Amino acid sequence: MDEFDIRIGPTEAVRLAQRIPEWLQQPHRAVGAPDNQPVLVAITEEALLSACRHAESSLDEIGGVLVGHAYQWGERTVVEVCAALRGDSMTTGRAHATFTVDTWAGLKLQQEQLFPDQMIVGWYHSHPRMGIFLSGMDLEIHEGFFSSSWHIALVLNGQGHRCGFFIWKDERIVPAPGFYCLDALDKQPRLSLQQARRNFTYAEVGDSSAVSVEESSPPEPITNTAQKPEVVSSQHETEASEPPTPPVMQETMRTALIGLFIIVALAWVRYRSRSWTSTR
Ligand SMILES: [Zn+2]
What residue ranges do the domains of the chain occupy? Predict the structure, then answer.
Protein backbone atom coordinates (compact mmCIF):
# COMPACT_ATOMS: atom_id res chain seq x y z
CA MET A 1 0.00 0.00 0.00
CA ASP A 2 3.03 2.31 0.07
CA GLU A 3 2.25 3.41 -3.48
CA PHE A 4 -0.83 5.15 -2.05
CA ASP A 5 1.17 6.94 0.64
CA ILE A 6 0.08 10.46 -0.16
CA ARG A 7 -2.74 12.59 1.24
CA ILE A 8 -5.21 13.52 -1.44
CA GLY A 9 -7.45 15.65 0.70
CA PRO A 10 -6.84 18.05 3.57
CA THR A 11 -5.08 16.31 6.43
CA GLU A 12 -7.19 17.99 9.08
CA ALA A 13 -10.96 17.64 9.28
CA VAL A 14 -12.67 20.20 7.08
CA ARG A 15 -15.48 22.11 8.71
CA LEU A 16 -18.07 22.55 6.04
CA ALA A 17 -19.93 25.86 5.74
CA GLN A 18 -23.70 26.06 5.71
CA ARG A 19 -25.10 27.02 2.31
CA ILE A 20 -28.19 26.70 0.16
CA PRO A 21 -27.53 24.93 -3.16
CA GLU A 22 -27.60 27.67 -5.81
CA TRP A 23 -28.38 25.19 -8.53
CA LEU A 24 -31.81 24.57 -7.03
CA GLN A 25 -32.78 27.81 -8.80
CA GLN A 26 -31.16 26.74 -12.08
CA PRO A 27 -31.75 23.90 -14.55
CA HIS A 28 -31.02 20.56 -12.93
CA ARG A 29 -32.26 17.02 -13.15
CA ALA A 30 -32.88 14.52 -10.39
CA VAL A 31 -31.66 11.14 -11.62
CA GLY A 32 -32.99 8.25 -9.55
CA ALA A 33 -33.88 9.24 -5.97
CA PRO A 34 -31.17 11.57 -4.67
CA ASP A 35 -33.28 12.98 -1.82
CA ASN A 36 -33.41 11.74 1.76
CA GLN A 37 -29.74 10.83 1.87
CA PRO A 38 -27.13 12.23 4.25
CA VAL A 39 -25.01 13.13 1.22
CA LEU A 40 -26.55 14.75 -1.85
CA VAL A 41 -24.46 14.34 -5.00
CA ALA A 42 -24.68 16.93 -7.76
CA ILE A 43 -22.49 16.90 -10.86
CA THR A 44 -22.31 19.18 -13.85
CA GLU A 45 -23.18 17.52 -17.13
CA GLU A 46 -19.78 18.64 -18.41
CA ALA A 47 -17.91 16.82 -15.62
CA LEU A 48 -19.99 13.65 -15.98
CA LEU A 49 -19.57 13.68 -19.76
CA SER A 50 -15.81 14.02 -19.34
CA ALA A 51 -15.64 11.01 -16.99
CA CYS A 52 -17.94 8.97 -19.29
CA ARG A 53 -15.79 9.67 -22.35
CA HIS A 54 -12.64 8.81 -20.40
CA ALA A 55 -14.21 5.48 -19.38
CA GLU A 56 -15.27 4.78 -22.96
CA SER A 57 -11.81 5.51 -24.30
CA SER A 58 -10.14 2.37 -22.98
CA LEU A 59 -10.70 -1.28 -22.15
CA ASP A 60 -8.15 -0.84 -19.37
CA GLU A 61 -9.30 0.59 -16.06
CA ILE A 62 -8.76 4.32 -16.05
CA GLY A 63 -9.57 6.96 -13.46
CA GLY A 64 -9.11 10.37 -12.01
CA VAL A 65 -10.43 12.73 -9.39
CA LEU A 66 -13.63 14.72 -8.96
CA VAL A 67 -13.22 18.38 -8.15
CA GLY A 68 -15.83 20.73 -6.73
CA HIS A 69 -17.41 21.99 -3.52
CA ALA A 70 -18.76 20.40 -0.37
CA TYR A 71 -21.00 22.16 2.15
CA GLN A 72 -23.77 21.61 4.63
CA TRP A 73 -27.39 22.25 3.74
CA GLY A 74 -29.18 21.86 7.05
CA GLU A 75 -28.45 18.32 8.21
CA ARG A 76 -27.34 17.19 4.81
CA THR A 77 -23.96 17.34 3.12
CA VAL A 78 -24.00 18.54 -0.47
CA VAL A 79 -21.19 17.49 -2.79
CA GLU A 80 -21.07 19.46 -6.03
CA VAL A 81 -18.76 18.08 -8.70
CA CYS A 82 -17.66 20.69 -11.23
CA ALA A 83 -14.84 18.87 -13.02
CA ALA A 84 -13.35 15.42 -13.57
CA LEU A 85 -9.57 15.47 -13.87
CA ARG A 86 -8.02 12.56 -15.72
CA GLY A 87 -5.22 10.58 -14.15
CA ASP A 88 -3.40 10.21 -17.43
CA SER A 89 -0.16 8.86 -16.01
CA MET A 90 -1.84 6.00 -14.15
CA THR A 91 -0.53 2.49 -14.61
CA THR A 92 -3.56 0.66 -15.89
CA GLY A 93 -4.58 -2.86 -16.74
CA ARG A 94 -7.68 -4.84 -17.60
CA ALA A 95 -8.22 -5.79 -13.97
CA HIS A 96 -6.95 -2.82 -12.06
CA ALA A 97 -6.04 0.82 -12.07
CA THR A 98 -2.97 1.67 -10.05
CA PHE A 99 -2.91 5.16 -8.66
CA THR A 100 0.77 5.86 -8.17
CA VAL A 101 2.22 8.63 -6.03
CA ASP A 102 2.96 10.53 -9.24
CA THR A 103 -0.66 10.18 -10.37
CA TRP A 104 -2.01 11.58 -7.12
CA ALA A 105 0.58 14.35 -7.02
CA GLY A 106 -0.15 15.32 -10.63
CA LEU A 107 -3.90 15.40 -10.03
CA LYS A 108 -3.52 17.45 -6.86
CA LEU A 109 -1.30 19.92 -8.75
CA GLN A 110 -3.86 20.17 -11.58
CA GLN A 111 -6.63 20.87 -9.08
CA GLU A 112 -4.61 23.57 -7.33
CA GLN A 113 -3.68 25.26 -10.60
CA LEU A 114 -6.97 24.95 -12.50
CA PHE A 115 -9.50 25.07 -9.63
CA PRO A 116 -7.77 26.79 -6.69
CA ASP A 117 -11.10 27.67 -5.03
CA GLN A 118 -12.32 24.06 -5.16
CA MET A 119 -11.41 20.78 -3.49
CA ILE A 120 -10.92 17.20 -4.54
CA VAL A 121 -14.29 15.81 -3.43
CA GLY A 122 -13.82 12.27 -4.66
CA TRP A 123 -12.50 10.01 -7.38
CA TYR A 124 -13.72 8.05 -10.35
CA HIS A 125 -12.56 4.97 -12.18
CA SER A 126 -13.84 2.65 -14.85
CA HIS A 127 -14.91 -0.97 -14.74
CA PRO A 128 -14.61 -1.93 -18.41
CA ARG A 129 -17.41 -4.37 -19.30
CA MET A 130 -18.05 -4.93 -15.59
CA GLY A 131 -20.69 -4.05 -13.07
CA ILE A 132 -20.91 -0.91 -10.97
CA PHE A 133 -19.51 -1.77 -7.55
CA LEU A 134 -16.50 -1.14 -5.35
CA SER A 135 -13.98 -3.97 -5.07
CA GLY A 136 -11.91 -4.67 -1.99
CA MET A 137 -9.08 -2.56 -3.34
CA ASP A 138 -11.52 0.22 -4.30
CA LEU A 139 -12.82 0.22 -0.72
CA GLU A 140 -9.26 0.36 0.60
CA ILE A 141 -8.55 3.40 -1.57
CA HIS A 142 -11.78 5.08 -0.53
CA GLU A 143 -11.32 4.38 3.16
CA GLY A 144 -7.66 5.39 3.05
CA PHE A 145 -7.81 8.54 0.96
CA PHE A 146 -11.44 9.62 0.76
CA SER A 147 -12.54 9.05 4.32
CA SER A 148 -14.37 12.33 4.93
CA SER A 149 -18.15 12.27 4.97
CA TRP A 150 -18.20 14.44 1.84
CA HIS A 151 -15.93 12.20 -0.24
CA ILE A 152 -17.65 10.33 -3.04
CA ALA A 153 -16.67 7.71 -5.63
CA LEU A 154 -17.95 7.35 -9.18
CA VAL A 155 -17.65 4.04 -11.05
CA LEU A 156 -18.33 3.85 -14.79
CA ASN A 157 -18.68 1.06 -17.32
CA GLY A 158 -17.89 2.91 -20.54
CA GLN A 159 -18.87 -0.01 -22.76
CA GLY A 160 -22.23 -0.69 -21.11
CA HIS A 161 -22.87 3.04 -20.58
CA ARG A 162 -23.53 2.60 -16.90
CA CYS A 163 -22.44 4.57 -13.89
CA GLY A 164 -23.06 4.91 -10.18
CA PHE A 165 -21.96 7.04 -7.26
CA PHE A 166 -20.96 5.84 -3.81
CA ILE A 167 -21.39 7.91 -0.65
CA TRP A 168 -20.65 7.61 3.05
CA LYS A 169 -23.70 6.73 5.14
CA ASP A 170 -23.54 5.64 8.78
CA GLU A 171 -19.77 5.11 8.39
CA ARG A 172 -20.30 2.72 5.50
CA ILE A 173 -19.74 3.23 1.81
CA VAL A 174 -23.04 2.68 0.02
CA PRO A 175 -24.35 3.22 -3.52
CA ALA A 176 -26.10 6.56 -3.90
CA PRO A 177 -29.70 5.94 -4.96
CA GLY A 178 -29.60 9.00 -7.18
CA PHE A 179 -27.82 12.22 -8.04
CA TYR A 180 -28.49 15.63 -9.50
CA CYS A 181 -27.21 16.53 -12.95
CA LEU A 182 -26.59 20.23 -13.33
CA ASP A 183 -27.26 21.31 -16.89
CA ALA A 184 -25.52 24.13 -18.68
CA LEU A 185 -27.77 27.18 -18.81
CA ASP A 186 -27.14 27.92 -22.47
CA LYS A 187 -27.13 24.42 -23.96
CA GLN A 188 -29.49 21.56 -24.69
CA PRO A 189 -28.85 18.48 -22.47
CA ARG A 190 -26.13 16.31 -23.98
CA LEU A 191 -26.61 13.29 -21.74
CA SER A 192 -29.78 11.33 -21.27
CA LEU A 193 -29.71 9.69 -17.84
CA GLN A 194 -31.91 6.95 -16.44
CA GLN A 195 -32.08 4.76 -13.39
CA ALA A 196 -31.47 1.07 -14.13
CA ARG A 197 -31.93 -1.10 -11.06
CA ARG A 198 -29.21 -0.13 -8.57
CA ASN A 199 -27.29 2.18 -10.88
CA PHE A 200 -27.76 4.41 -13.89
CA THR A 201 -27.47 4.36 -17.65
CA TYR A 202 -26.28 7.24 -19.70
CA ALA A 203 -26.34 8.01 -23.38
CA GLU A 204 -25.02 10.94 -25.28
CA VAL A 205 -27.99 12.58 -26.98
CA GLY A 206 -28.06 11.37 -30.57
CA ASP A 207 -26.08 8.19 -29.80
CA SER A 208 -28.53 5.31 -30.34
CA SER A 209 -26.04 2.54 -29.52
CA ALA A 210 -25.99 3.08 -25.78
CA VAL A 211 -29.31 1.61 -24.63
CA SER A 212 -29.12 -1.62 -26.61
CA VAL A 213 -25.61 -2.25 -25.30
CA GLU A 214 -26.82 -1.67 -21.76
CA GLU A 215 -29.73 -4.08 -22.02
CA SER A 216 -27.51 -7.03 -22.93
CA SER A 217 -24.84 -6.29 -20.35
CA PRO A 218 -24.31 -8.93 -17.65
CA PRO A 219 -25.86 -8.43 -14.22
CA GLU A 220 -23.52 -6.72 -11.81
CA PRO A 221 -22.51 -8.25 -8.49
CA ILE A 222 -24.01 -6.86 -5.32
CA THR A 223 -22.16 -3.82 -4.12
CA ASN A 224 -19.91 -3.43 -1.18
CA THR A 225 -20.22 -3.06 2.46
CA ALA A 226 -17.30 -1.37 4.11
CA GLN A 227 -17.21 -4.11 6.73
CA LYS A 228 -16.46 -6.96 4.32
CA PRO A 229 -13.89 -5.80 1.81
CA GLU A 230 -12.31 -9.27 1.35
CA VAL A 231 -15.51 -10.74 -0.07
CA VAL A 232 -16.02 -7.89 -2.49
CA SER A 233 -12.36 -8.03 -3.43
CA SER A 234 -12.53 -11.65 -4.49
CA GLN A 235 -15.69 -10.96 -6.51
CA HIS A 236 -13.90 -8.15 -8.25
CA GLU A 237 -10.74 -10.08 -9.00
CA THR A 238 -12.64 -13.12 -10.21
CA GLU A 239 -14.82 -10.98 -12.36
CA ALA A 240 -11.92 -8.93 -13.61
CA SER A 241 -9.76 -11.86 -14.62
CA GLU A 242 -12.61 -14.00 -15.88
CA PRO A 243 -15.42 -11.86 -17.24
CA PRO A 244 -18.79 -13.53 -16.65
CA THR A 245 -20.45 -15.11 -19.65
CA PRO A 246 -23.22 -12.76 -20.70
CA PRO A 247 -26.74 -14.24 -20.53
CA VAL A 248 -27.06 -13.88 -24.31
CA MET A 249 -23.95 -15.99 -24.80
CA GLN A 250 -25.19 -18.65 -22.36
CA GLU A 251 -28.50 -18.78 -24.21
CA THR A 252 -26.74 -19.18 -27.57
CA MET A 253 -24.55 -21.99 -26.21
CA ARG A 254 -27.55 -23.79 -24.74
CA THR A 255 -29.43 -23.55 -28.05
CA ALA A 256 -26.38 -24.85 -29.93
CA LEU A 257 -26.04 -27.82 -27.53
CA ILE A 258 -29.72 -28.73 -27.85
CA GLY A 259 -29.40 -28.52 -31.67
CA LEU A 260 -26.32 -30.75 -31.61
CA PHE A 261 -28.09 -33.28 -29.39
CA ILE A 262 -31.08 -33.44 -31.78
CA ILE A 263 -28.78 -33.97 -34.81
CA VAL A 264 -26.90 -36.79 -33.05
CA ALA A 265 -30.17 -38.37 -31.88
CA LEU A 266 -31.67 -38.24 -35.40
CA ALA A 267 -28.50 -39.70 -36.92
CA TRP A 268 -28.54 -42.49 -34.35
CA VAL A 269 -32.23 -43.27 -34.99
CA ARG A 270 -31.63 -43.30 -38.76
CA TYR A 271 -28.58 -45.56 -38.32
CA ARG A 272 -30.50 -47.92 -36.05
CA SER A 273 -33.50 -48.11 -38.36
CA ARG A 274 -31.24 -48.74 -41.36
CA SER A 275 -29.28 -51.46 -39.62
CA TRP A 276 -32.54 -52.87 -38.27
CA THR A 277 -33.99 -52.90 -41.82
CA SER A 278 -30.84 -54.47 -43.27
CA THR A 279 -30.77 -57.25 -40.66
CA ARG A 280 -34.35 -58.17 -41.49
ZN1 LIG B 1 -12.96 -0.83 -9.17
Answer: 2-244, 247-280
- Find the 215 Cα to ligand 1 centroid distance in Å: 21
Residue 276 C-alpha to ligand 1 middle, in angstroms?
A: 63
For residue 242, pLDDT over 50 is answered with: no
2-244: CATH number:
3.40.140.10
pLDDT tens string 184-240: 777 788 899 999 988 999 999 876 554 443 333 443 443 333 333 332 233 343 333
**Dist. CA 11 → ligand 1 center (Å):** 24
Q: Using alpha carbons, select from 44, 140, 47, 41 the residue that is nearest to residue 97.
A: 140
**What is the CA(156)–ligand 1 centre distance, in A?**
9
Kindly give the distance from the C-alpha atom of residue 256 to the centroid of ligand 1, in angstroms, as a whole number: 34
- Give the contacts of 78 (CB within 8 A, at least 6 positions apart): 19, 21, 39, 40, 42, 69, 70, 71, 72
pLDDT in tens, 15-27: 899 999 999 888 8
Q: Could you tell me the distance, in angstroms and rounded to a whole number, from the CA of residue 277 to the centre of ligand 1? A: 65
Q: Tabulate helix, strand, coil % of the chain (nearest 5).
A: 35, 30, 35
Residue 161 pLDDT > 90: yes
pLDDT, one tens digit per residue, over 9-63 is 544 567 899 999 999 888 899 999 998 899 999 999 999 999 999 999 999 999 9
Cα(106) to ligand 1 centroid in Å equals 21
> Measured in angstroms, how far is the CA atom of residue 134 from the centroid of ligand 1?
5
DSSP H or E run through 64: strand 63-73
